[in-house]
Structure formats: C-alpha cells, structure tokens
Amino acid sequence: MESTFSWWFQSFHDSWILIFSSLIMIIFLTLFILKKRVYCNCEICQTYINSNWKIQFDNLCDWYTHLLQKSPTHTIHIHVLGNTITANPDNVEYMLKTRFDNFPKGKPFSAILGDFLGRGIFNVDGDLWRFQRKMTSLELSRVSVQKYAFEVVNHEIDRRLLPLLASVVGKEDGILDLQDVFRRFSFDCICRFSFGLDPKCLDLSLPITKFAAAFDLASQLSAERAMTASPLLWKMKRFFNIGSEKKLRQAIKIINMLAHEVIRQRRKFGFSEEKDLLSRFMGTINDEKYLRDIVISFLLAGRDTVASSLTSFFWLMANHPEVEAAILAEADRVIGQNVQVTSYKQLKELHYLRAAVYESMRLYPPIQFDSKFCLEDDVFPDGTFVKKGTRVTYHPYAMGRMEEIWGSDCLEFKPERWLKDGVVFFQENPFKYPVFQAGVRVCLGKEMALVELKSVALSLLRTFRIELAQPHPTPRFSPGLTATFRGGLPVLVQPRRAPS
Question: Across 261-364, where does the E strand assignment appear?
C-alpha cells in the first residue's frame, strides 16, 4: 500500500512538473513570437516593411514619425497593438478638449502604470484626478509658492550645479555626463520644493542613490509594458514573478520605502503651511498608499521631464553655436554682463531664450507620446473611425516633424519661428504644440518648469563653454516614460571667460 501511494505521489509530482515546465515554455515562446510582431499589418505599414528600399531607424519614435508622415491624414492604426496614433492637430484638439470625456486615460492604461504610479494624478480619471488637480492648481498659483520654487532652483544652481561643473574644468578626465547631472539637479529641486526634503544628489561626490536607480528602472519597465502586444503577457510574467516583472516589483519596493520615509519625516517634524506641496495634501489625506502615489507622481513630473528637456537643449546648443551666441547677446543686453537673474520679470524679458527652449522641446519633447482610451465609438475630424476600447495616442515628437504644421524647414532648429517680428516671443496653438499637453489636462507646472529650464540654461551658458565629448549626429533614446539619451550626454566643460 505504501509503495503504491509513493508511486502515485511520484507520478503526480512528475506530471505537475511536466505541466508547469510546458506552461513556462509556452509563455516564453509566445513572448518571443509576439515580440517579433511589433509591426502593423495595415497597408501603409506593410508597404514600408516590404519595400525594396530599406530605411534604418535608431529610435522607435522616428519609425512612427515616418509612418505618420506617409499617411494622408497623419493618423495610423497599429493593429497588433490596438493603437490609433495621430499627429494631426485637429485630432489632438478633439481628444483633449472637444471630446475630452470620451478619451480618458482609461482602465487599461491605469493598469499598465498602476504598480508604479498607483492613483497619482497622471494615472487616474474622474474624482481622483479632479481632486489632485484642484489642490495642485490652487497651490501652484500662489505667489509665495512661486517665490519659494524660484529660491530653490537658484540655490541649487549657485551652491551645487555651478560648483560641480567648475570642479571638472581643466581636468584630463574631466568628462561629465550632463544628463546624469541634470537628473540629480531636478531630483534635488523637486524633493526640496514638493516635500521639504534635500537628498543632496548633486553634492560634489555625486552619491549614487539606489532610489534614483530604482526610479529609472521602474519607469523603463513600465513603459515596456505599454509596448507589449498583449496585456496578458506582462500580467502572466507578473503573476509568476519572472523576468522584467520581477525586476519591476523589486524596483517599486525600493521606491515605496523612500516614499513612505518622506511621509514619515513630514509627520514627525510637522507640516509646513507656506512651502512644500506634500504638507498641503497631508492636511486632507490620511491614506498612506494614496499619499505614496502622489509623492511618486510629483517626482515623475518634476525630475524626469525637466532633466530630459535640459539634456536635449544642451545637445542642441553644442551643435548650434549661433543660437548660443544669440542667447548670450540677449542676456548681456537685458540683464548686464555681471548680474544674475533675480526675478521672474527678468526671465520673461529674455524672449529669444524662451524661443530657444520651446524650439528645443518642439524637436525633442520630454514626453514623446501620450495615450488615452476611447470610451465609445467615435470619429476623428480627419475622418478616422475610432472603435470603443481603442488606445489612442497623440505624438508630439512626430508632430514637431510635420511640414504641414511647421513648414518645409520643420527639421531645422530655428528659435526665430517663435518670435513675432523677430523680437517678441509668441505662443503657438497648444494643439499644434502639445508638449505641455493641452485642453483640460494642460500641465499645471508649465511655468515653473520653464523658469527652471531658463534659469539653468542661462547660468550654465554664461559661465561655461560646454562641448560634446562624443559628437553624434542624432540622439538615440532608451525606452522609458520620458525621453532619455542612450549613453547619457558626455561633455567637456571650459570656462566661458578667462579669470580677471
């Protein structure tokens, strides 16, 4: 009897192992096959793929741009991803304003970023979104808050950013990854402004924090979820805790530790009524996990987008010395050669600098595309039918490269296109330039981000001469929720003016 039971148990055990192993093999085979099928089977995509002439693209966003340029309506549908993508300003306005309620972020998108962003403002709709937006809007519009943000940025520039770059001047191995520097800078700024916390990532020792690494990894892996042909694939990997999903879970665990520590410290030392944003949210929210989601959303908005914009801007400056010279000439004329920017008013008078920043983000937006989901069957202004449940994406990166929008010189870096009569900056139609989104969900931190971008740009350009250590014709991007230069931005730093 005992031997019979042992035999039965062993047979059952062996059968279970065989079934489980077969299941794992099927999963990975499916992942492999679908990974290869990241193309569209519509006519325009098949024409591109099967054509005799072959075009090599370093970036996925350039491939999408190519497809959108070829489409008569500048709208395409990637069948295997169930994704309708558009670079048509009329469609963008329809999604973000006219039919805003029919194109929410949607449950499928919220599921993709749910483990990382939770119920933060970038990942929710309805009452949760309205509450966070109202709270943030009220606080960011306060003069005291704007003044505090200006102080934080300038303190970080004067006490850390400029000394760090000065420390590598003249050194034989004085190559600095400017993208890494900007990430540290923006991380310090957003933590001090939003949480009253100073992580000191930009100290001269350039400490490596496991949190920053975990944040980068979580952003990358969450973005890869969005590019998976079927949500079932990443959900199965998450269920079995394998591969990229295992790495994502580990990264989010580290992120949660820091977020909860930030909240704990705020509670321990009391709230700041006049300064950091977290204190204001904590005055009305007791849910620890909800507060964690708000913390992560602030970090994503204030760190990655600013760092991405600054990286692209200085890459363009290194390749366009005539624009750099025009910025410096304007600064000398408006604020004098030896005077630092001391107010919003001075920054607003630098029209050419603002034009250069906008032009930089036209070509290299920090968020290259943004997706919504269609609630009910709809039709875009260009005649494209959008089926209920379809993912719909507008593509700022591609829109910046459309001749119909920007003219035959759309691929050129020309800040002058933003100047009326060549002198005064003017704002283009936001649906033509949705870098800060547009309509109901327009970015609340837009003006503060511009202050940060212009302050850093002006301070560094007036103090140093920055050259690329490894020149390359076009940037190559790594996967992520924001545009990231693959390999960073290695630069050589020299003083702008010889010491007197």
Answer: none
